[in-house]
Amino acid sequence: MGTNDKPYAPPCEELYIYYLRGNADTRDTDFGNSFLGNWEEDGFSFLFFSQKADVKVKKLLSRQPDLILLDSFIMPYEQWQPLDDFPIRAGGFTIYPPWLKPAGKDGNRTIILDPGVVFGSGCHATTSDCLEALDLITSRNRGTPRSAVDIGTGTGLLSIAAAITGIERVIGIDINFLAASTALRNAGLNNVSDRVMFIKGDAKELSSCIKTDLFIANIHYDIMKDLLGSPSFESCSSFILSGLMRSQAWEIVSALKKMPVTLTKEWNSDGIWYTFMGDKH
Question: In b/e form, how buried is each residue of 79-104, taking b as 16+ CB within 10 angstroms?
């Protein structure tokens, strides 16, 4: 799976989205260049196209009769991924899409990010707080961690940022293949493919066999609460935990208080989204 096999250009004006029940196998299809990807989650598939694809989807359904078309949508790409948010500045980083030329030096590290149809462009409060936490951890007198794990990597933004700060080995994990492939391509855009590996897989299973210095998780509470007992979290010396709403955040804090950890900083956005940074004793 190459990282520079397609030229980068501004995104399409409209997204054509087909919502299916079932896991669509889009390998060996004749979808062509208008096909942007397949997001699979909980037994459902979302097929993204830059052009109307009714005929192509109908052929797919005839070849895979277990699939059921539930609905289809047309929406502006900017409604899915707000382009006006770029460039995004957070935690010592400035994020540009590949079709927007960086406007000179602003003192921040530059990240080139093509989110495609995957969430994680850096505009959400939890992502920007994670970037700030990452910047703080890697600039402390304790020195930069040598390795990091990024659970729920999405576009790969946090993994790429970790590598740019000087972390030598980074593993980004996502259950979704479209996210992992998007992240891989973004690593190539930032010339960090030699330091970052992306894995499509289950976070709970993979965290049982990966040890790391820095543990990053911007992910659902239901997954995070189980990861706190994983060998990956137990092995880390520092951590960043995010993606938590208020009640969930206090559940995580309660669990952390039973562990040999120190919470060094907390962020919250409008009292809704919480991010925690901490160290292990």
Answer: ebbeeeebbbebbbbbbbbeeeeeee
Query: If you search the block for the tokens 């600039």, which residue do you land on?
Result: 139
CATH 1.10.260.40 assigned to domain 83-280? The reply is no
- Scanning the structure block, which residue is given the tokens 């995104």? 11
Residue 48 has φ and ψ, to the nearest 5°, of -110, 130
Task: Give 199's contacts (C-beta < 8 A, 6+ positions apart).
Answer: 171, 172, 173, 174, 180, 206
**What local confidence, expressed as pLDDT, does residue 221 receive?**
92
Instruction: In whole angstroms, give the CA distance from residue 200 to residue 162.
Output: 19
Q: Can you give the pLDDT at residue 4?
A: 44
Indicate the pTM of the whole model.
0.89
Phi, psi of 275 (to 5 degrees): -135, 140
- Check if CATH label 3.30.70 holds for domain 14-80: yes
Q: Where in the chain is the domain with CATH 3.30.70?
A: 14-80
pLDDT in tens, 20-55: 999 999 988 889 989 999 999 889 999 999 999 999
Confidence tier at 157 by pLDDT (50, 70, 90) = very high
Which residues of the chain does CATH 3.40.50.150 include? 83-280
pLDDT of res. 10: 57
Percent of the chain topping pLDDT 70 = 96
